[in-house]
Amino acid sequence: MVRQVRPITCGVVSTATDYKKIENKIISGIRSYFQNAGYENAVIGLSGGLDSTTACLLTAKALGEQNVHGIILPAETTPRNDVEDALLFARELGINHYIFNISDIANAFVHRLHHRHLLPNSNVTRGNIAARARMTALYNVAQRTRSLVVGTGDRSELLLGYFTKYGDGGADILPLGSLYKTEVRALAKSMHIPPFILNKPSSPNLWHGQTAAEELGADYGQIDPILQMLVDKKMNEKSVARKTKNAQLVAKISSMIKKSEHKRKTPYVIRA
Fold first, then answer.
1. How far apart are alpha carbons 45 and 58 in whole angstroms?
2. Cα–Cα dist 161/36, whole Å
3. How many CB atoms lie under 10 A from the CB of residue 174?
4. CA-CA distances (angstroms) from residue 48 to 73, 106, 203, 254?
5. What average pLDDT does the segment 92-98 reach?
6. Between residues 255 and 213, which one has the greater pLDDT?
7. Are strands 41-46 and 147-150 parallel, antiparallel or unpaired?
8. pTM to 2 decimals?
């Protein structure tokens, strides 16, 4: 079951935002959640990217570095520098960390399904298999270490459905789930996340050359204000389109929100 910490803020990045206060509130929320659940340890997937690094640092501050297990799960499509960045961060932070390459597992699954004609030959379906293999690995480590799995998704990704259901969306707590991507970047900067991670373009890296901006059709600097107007301010599409002067992007984002609603809910139970 995917849960979120209590929403922290509803706005996009502002120079007046008190990110230290947000940091403290998230840390307190993580600590409280783990205490109430009766767990001391956390497992988190480290990709070398902005979200996983920020979520990991917040978790370490909440639970202590000795109680955090950072798992680096590269595949064939993972850039070498991402693995190196994740390793460097984990070592400097002082958390337990491990590398487990999922290529063989993901490829075997793809091959078997493709052989049985059960797998559409596309980047998305292959990427989803990799994401779900990572989730499986994280929960197995969590069972071994008696930990909860910390997810790394942010509010922008959750609202857009820009995550794999039961893949990177499979977690016990989402520390960044109430912050837009632009807010996460600002929070990370205030927490002194290294520039080589802070300034890295957003990408799930589920296939070679994948970037969030290209796949979504815009960068988060454009997307986040539209999400805020549509979701937080409950403005209609026409009003947002007039304000942004980009009706095509507004329509696309609105459609993504609606079509991904099922990804933000627990399975529907039919009353018998």
1. 14
2. 29
3. 23
4. 10, 20, 11, 30
5. 97
6. 255
7. parallel
8. 0.90
